[in-house]
Design a protein that fits this description.
The protein is of the alpha+beta class. Helix content is 49%, strand content 8%. It contains 19 helices and 13 strands. The strands form 4 sheets. Strands 3-4-5-6-8-7 form a 6-stranded antiparallel beta sheet, covered by helices on one side. Helix 13 runs antiparallel to helix 14 and helix 15 runs antiparallel to helix 16. The protein starts with 17 loop residues before the first strand and ends with a helix.
Length: 694
């Protein structure tokens, strides 16, 4: 029967497909066959048709609708450049296989062709035992008898099956169809690629080409041909750009974990890129296209078989996403040029190990950070040369908004020497997780301001407490400054008044001293001239009255000074020392006046007041000993004044003098009782109170 035409390839889809087996999806990259006779030239070689080429490294087929010119291309290889492959050689049959609807392959009933590639074809099928949709991949009939092709196909199936990880599409079984062709069944997943998510994040529009999609980018033109995506069953909610960026990074971490698991199984992928990472609407992240995968336990045999197959004239479709594209760069480089590690681009098979995958992961992170592939060039050869020399701009230079710690992580993962890269995919993922957790990464030291800001974000309570203390300190300092300024003004005014009173007292003292000199002179003169006339005696009495008046005025000035000081400084904070100094000077002046001259009620009573005021000052200064001393002196002086008043001859002022003296004594006793009580001398205090009451 004539082969049925191949239906348009479907876009990679992720979505829910409710079956008896639960959520089913297909993770099958779409592809289309290369038409016979298409041609392409590498690095300026003359165009040669694929069907007549004898040199396996000379020509590369290009699908219909793509034009490649020798010696110059229409655009750089800046995005997902597909692995460079070769097309079917002479005698091969690149045509499509029949849809095989209803055909049984083992327990799987084929429902229809879903996609086709260079080496295999993928069918949508139903698992008749578990009643679920699956994808069945079968080697094409014209490659089924080729030992190298079968080896590659079976290697892809067995390596994928060994990776029992949520980030790898599970393989359900390996069977042969009725014609003996190998087939394997795998999970059927609908979805899109990480590249689609990145393009959407950076606003890159999808281009269309006759309803078909490919995740490959032509090596010369840089064009893509995606087909229309099926309508999603549930639209993804709109999220802020920062959340979408963190979502991309979480996809990347899941990819790193899947690759780390493969490395644990001694399997390397060798073609990691955003187009080979499938993502779903419910957090699914799967690494696909293990066609270039290699088991490190198998040694170099796989690559040797590949090169031998190429030397024998084998070709395959460059748009194939399910077929190992081993024949890159003259049959030595394996993978996608823009994402290859330098040792991989150099074709050094023995040097390609897990750290080559770490490089590709770093290149994938670069795309997440910038929206562009890290390495570009006008031709495949130029891209490979740039990869080998490490010629690429850092992510922070391509995208100024790129976080510098993540730029450092990408640069370390893409280090030119394998030993300078991360030791494994988990270490790379750990640094990205540190950034997502607002922790410092291992390969970048943040500036001081960034470290302080991180500390503040991690310790908001301490920051709030510190700010509160700082604000309280500032407010307190301002309040203290205001109070201090007010106090300074009040103190200056008080000092001015005190100085004025002091000047008055000094003037009175000078006048009193002068009067005393005159009195002394007059006394001497009266003593020497006992026979003076009555006129001289009267003059002496007038002078005596003048001296007495001046004396009383001096004592009155002291009394006014003491009362004024007590009135102005009694409740002023910090004025006790000044108050004490002024009162002590007043006390000393009164004592001098008392010793110098007459015995008078006013001077002695003023001295009582001075002692009592001094005791009060010491009490305010918590010097109870000095307070007790001066209150006792006040009581003693008051006793003396009262005794003098009681002994004085009767006169118009005698009763008033006695009452004033008794009142001074009572006040002095009460003050003495207060200080005795503070000294815990209760009995003595009670005695003083009783005496004051009497």
């Amino acid at each position: 029967a004539a082969p049925a035409p191949i239906p348009p390839a479907r876009e990679k889809e992720v979505g829910s497909d409710a079956t008896a087996g639960g959520l089913e999806a297909t993770l099958v990259p779409s592809a289309r066959p290369a038409p016979t006779g298409a041609h392409v030239t590498i690095a300026g070689r003359a165009d040669v048709t694929g069907a007549g080429s004898a040199d396996p490294a000379a020509t590369l087929p290009t699908p219909v609708g793509r034009t490649v010119a020798s010696g110059g291309s229409s655009g750089p290889l800046g995005s997902d450049t597909a692995p460079v492959s070769v097309s079917p050689g002479p005698g091969a049959r690149p045509g499509p296989s029949p849809s095989a609807t209803g055909t049984m392959v083992g327990r799987f009933a084929l429902k229809g062709l879903h996609a086709t590639g260079g080496l295999g074809e993928v069918f949508l099928a139903r698992d008749t035992e578990l009643n679920r949709e699956v994808a069945v991949k079968r080697i094409k009939s014209h490659y089924a008898d080729d030992a190298g092709s079968r080896s590659r196909f079976l290697s892809e199936a067995t390596l994928t099956a060994r990776l029992d990880h949520p980030g790898v599409v599970p393989v359900f079984g390996l069977v042969n169809d009725v014609r003996g062709r190998p087939c394997y069944a795998m999970r059927f997943i609908r979805g899109e690629t990480l590249k689609d998510e990145i393009d959407r994040f950076y606003g890159v529009p999808k281009s269309e080409d006759k309803g078909q999609k490919t995740d490959k980018t032509d090596g010369a033109t840089g064009s893509t041909a995606p087909g229309p995506a099926p309508a999603p069953e549930e639209a993804a909610p709109e999220v802020p750009r920062s959340v979408a960026f963190r979502h991309l990074l979480s996809r990347f971490i899941a990819t790193c974990q899947a690759i780390a698991y493969a490395h644990k199984k001694n399997i390397i992928h060798r073609d990691i890129k955003p187009a080979n990472i499938m993502v779903g609407s419910f957090g699914e992240t799967l690494v696909v296209d293990w066609g270039l995968a290699k088991s490190l336990d198998d040694g170099p045999d796989f690559d040797r078989i590949t090169r031998a197959a190429a030397a024998s004239g084998f070709r395959h479709d460059p748009d194939a996403t399910d077929l190992p594209s081993h024949m890159t760069s003259a049959g030595t480089a394996v993978g996608t040029p823009a994402y290859m590690a330098p040792e991989q681009a150099a074709g050094d098979v023995h040097a390609v190990g897990p750290r080559a995958d770490v490089y590709a992961l770093g290149a994938t992170l670069f795309v997440i950070l910038t929206g562009k592939a890290p390495v570009g060039g006008k031709t495949t050869a130029e891209v490979l040369a740039n990869v080998r020399s490490g010629a690429y701009e850092p992510a922070a230079a391509v995208n100024p908004k790129c976080p510098k710690p993540l730029d450092a992580v990408a640069r370390k993962a893409m280090a030119l020497r394998p030993e300078d890269r991360y030791a494994g995919a988990l270490e790379l993922a750990a640094d990205v997780e540190r950034w997502l957790s607002d922790e410092p990464v291992s390969c970048y030291r943040d500036p001081l301001f960034a470290r302080l800001a991180r500390w503040a974000r991690h310790h908001p309570t301490r920051l709030a407490s510190g700010v509160s203390v700082l604000l309280a300190s500032v407010v307190a300092a301002i309040a203290i400054a205001v109070v201090y300024q007010q106090g300074e003004r009040q103190t200056a005014a008080a000092l001015f008044q005190v100085q004025k009173e002091r000047d008055n007292v000094h003037a009175e003292q000078q006048k009193t001293a002068a009067a005393l000199v005159l009195v002394e002179k007059e006394r001497d003169r009266v003593r020497d001239q006992k026979d003076e006339t009555e006129r001289q005696r009267e003059r002496a009495e007038e002078l005596g009255k003048l001296v007495t008046e001046r004396y009383d005025r001096a004592v009155g000035a002291y009394n006014v000074l003491i009362k004024e000081v007590d009135k102005r400084f009694a409740n002023q904070i910090g004025m006790e020392k000044l108050r004490r100094e002024i009162l002590e000077k007043a006390r000393d002046g009164l004592q001098k006046l008392t010793r110098a001259g007459r015995e008078g009620r006013f001077a002695d009573r003023t001295l009582v007041s001075a002692y009592r005021q001094l005791g009060d000052v010491y009490l305010r200064l918590n010097d109870t000993a000095e307070a007790h001393k001066h209150f006792a002196l006040a009581v003693e002086q008051a006793d003396r004044v009262l005794d003098d008043a009681e002994k004085a001859p009767a006169g118009p002022n005698t009763a008033a003098d006695r009452r004033a003296a008794a009142l001074d004594l009572g006040r002095s006793l009460v003050a003495l009782a207060e200080v005795l009580d503070r000294q815990s001398k209760s009995d003595a205090a009670k005695t003083a109170i009783d005496r004051a009451v009497q």
